[in-house]
Amino acid sequence: MAAKGQIEIGVVLQGGGALGAYEYGAMDALLELMDEIEANGRTVRLVAVTGVSIGAINAACVVGAKNRADARRRLKSLWGALSLEASHYWWTIAKTDFALFGVDGFYEPRRDVWNFLGWTNFYDTRPMLETLKGHVDFELLNASETAFVITAVNRSSGELVRFRNHPYKAEAKIEIEPSHVLASGSLPPAFPATTIGIGDFWDGGIIDNTPLGDAIDAFSGSGDVDRILIVMNLFRKERAPPKNMIEVNDRLAELRYGNRLRQDRQNAHAVNELLQTIEELAALVSAGSMDQQLEARVFGASRFKVLDAITDIDLADPVLMKEAGLSPGSAESGSFRDFSKTGIERRREAGYRIAQLKLQELFETHGLLPARH
Fold first, then answer.
1. What is the rounded distance in angstroms from the CA atom of residue 63 to the CA atom of residue 70?
2. Residues 21 and 348 sit within 8 Å (Cβ to Cβ)
3. Which of 89, 100, 144, 274 is the most buried (most CB within 10 A)?
4. Between helices 68-82 and 126-135, what is the axis angle to 10°?
């Protein structure tokens, strides 16, 4: 495909606990390749980064940065701070589950055990507020040209609420603060709801773990644009049968938070076929004979036609791992709570190499990078 004038990239980041290290590696690769595109004489814009839960935290590091190099540095620093050095503990056999005892800078167990019968959550997430302040420049995030959209659920009304740094239609711009990002990752019953104003909010992934539409909305309406939508999928579609109740619960989480993306992708294909039909019918109408309002609607609809530019990266897919020259990761249950240093680094490396593989091919197809032989 020949490259057009402008290049716009939108990114969608899922929630998934420690699996977010895949996104860290993948974003590292994407930002690096964007530098390569500009070195080849093209201008590329990151028009949107949307996210939920750990994806919202990763997104905040990217948008709340001075430039792409600073974003990569902030991601590295964040995940270094969240990594547990399991070798420091005597119970190394349980290193993948040591996060159950807390993750420094993220959450810690509640101490008011005398009030256990009144608990509605198990951990205190206030440490993450300080971590966000240390790794995200919220002044830059709120002033950024890149649309930042994260979601949370109002616990009382059940409404999915978007916190965005740009206004959109009837939704106002919000001055994003650490509490908004924390709200997007306040997954019950582990974590408490986060209070913002007069509302209490839970993790947006409860309703939708892949805010695809919000990224699409950020693309411009110009016709002379290469629109590239990159969606990070953290959960495997297939898994061996669970062997105990813990694995049943973990498999349920995988299916609950990963399959919505696959449904959205099927819907996107259907929408693009419809839009293609509209364009072909509009081309049959003689010039000047179409009502101006209808003509504007037909033109406006073209911004949603992104079928040829959707890249769904299954970051935990064993087939992709093999293609990237990696040994498929362990299929252990509960990997989304594995914040061990070795687990984080393994997922970062896998995310980086898988994204390099997929995105290099994508950008070559769009004529944005020379083919590597």
1. 10
2. yes
3. 144
4. 150
